[in-house]
Amino acid sequence: MSEQVQPVKIAYLSTFYPYRGGIAQFNASLYRELEKHAEIRAFTFTRQYPDLLFPGQTQLIQKGDPADPIQADRCLDTINPVSWYRTARLIASWKPDVLVMKFWMPFFGPSLGFVAGYLKKRGVRVVTILDNVIPHERRPGDLTLIRYFLNRSSAFIAMTATVRDDLLRLKPDARHVVKAHPVYDHFPARMGRAEARRQLGLDPDSPMLLFFGFIRGYKGLDVLIEALPETDSRIGLMVAGEVYGSFEAYQEQIDRLQLGSRIYLYHHYIPDTEVAVYFSAADVVVLPYRSATQSGIVQIAYHYQLPVIVTAVGGLTEMVTDGVTGLVIPPGNPGAVADAIRRFFENHSDGQMEREIAARAPDFSWSGFAGELLALARS
């Protein structure tokens, strides 16, 4: 990062400790990098989602879960407009130069948009990091909420060109930069494959796939399960992550295809301390998504220098170079998934992809992302 970047006073309103998940992890890592160059203060939610919009087990860190305990003011209730005003006044009283936020679904448009608008009117520059503009699962009224929010930000960081294109369709004059999601580097180090498989009760010699992260319909786990019988019977699949909703349909599919001996289920929330064992046990990560903009799962895989098989949706093709750091296939096609799995184990299991991933690590640094944000904040 350039030494010429001058410090600024940053209010960062988003998901922080005691909330858990990928958004909180991203914010904590970026906060730690920004605090090296700016005076920064974190603000977060008293209520992030109502239960209706969060079908997982819990939104909060549980006892024993590791997390970076960023000290944040808990002030914003997303469904209580009185708290929006109080939050805006609290942040304004600190007199920041810049307000940083993340945006990933229209539900947050009213609450974050109100705070952003209040501060923008008072001369604060509002910089929003866009995970998505258009949501994976759309609902009536989404575009109205999205436009309301976008019009109250000063500038944007889009983490893929796909997100940028969605932004410019709705706000053609948006000031923006495109900067890729950094590689997560806070997880435990990779362990030996034999030890990881021993801990998980896996065959030490079988080829092994990994489907990791929250299990939601758009992520295409059913497509991957449907593809598995078309591959070598020695190949196993780990499914590791918390289910949003019910796992019943997936279990019925596994039973129908008689795959119980090849699929290893760990469908619960995976705390950071346990992430290494799953990625260390795998040969390749599979993301058979039906839709996407970008994915933190790819960046976890890259942290462990693990190749990925992804579908050609959204920004995933910007994160994965076909035949170099992974394989890119059409979405919604079990045959294409099966073919990619066969090609990987026949042609790409010699470690070359792992070496390519390691060589590209500097392109996905937190310091580089923070530098782009600071430059945008000062421009």
Structure description:
The chain has helices spanning 22-34, 81-94, 109-121, 142-150, 161-170, 193-200, 221-227, 248-256, 272-281, 296-303, 316-319, 334-347, 352-359, 366-378, and strands spanning 9-13, 39-47, 72-77, 98-103, 125-130, 155-158, 176-178, 208-212, 236-240, 263-266, 284-287, 308-311, 326-329. By secondary structure, it is an alpha/beta fold. The two termini are 16 Å apart. The model is unreliable at 1-5 (pLDDT under 50).
Short account of what is shown:
By secondary structure, this protein is an alpha/beta fold.
Q: Helix share of residues?
A: 25-40%
Query: What coarse outline follows from CA principal-axis ratios?
Result: globular
- Measured distance between first and last alpha carbons: 16 Å
Ranges where pLDDT stays below 50 over 5 or more residues in a row are 1-5
- Report the portion of residues in β strands: 15-25%
Number of helices: 14
Task: Going across the biggest sheet, name each strand in turn.
Answer: 3-2-1-4-5-6-7
Biggest sheet record: 7 strands, parallel
Instruction: Give me the Rg, rounded.
Output: 21 Å
Mean of residue pLDDT values: 90
What's the total number of strands?
13
Content-based structural category: alpha/beta
Query: What is the helix/strand order?
Result: EHEEHEHEHEHEHEHEHEHEHEHEHHH
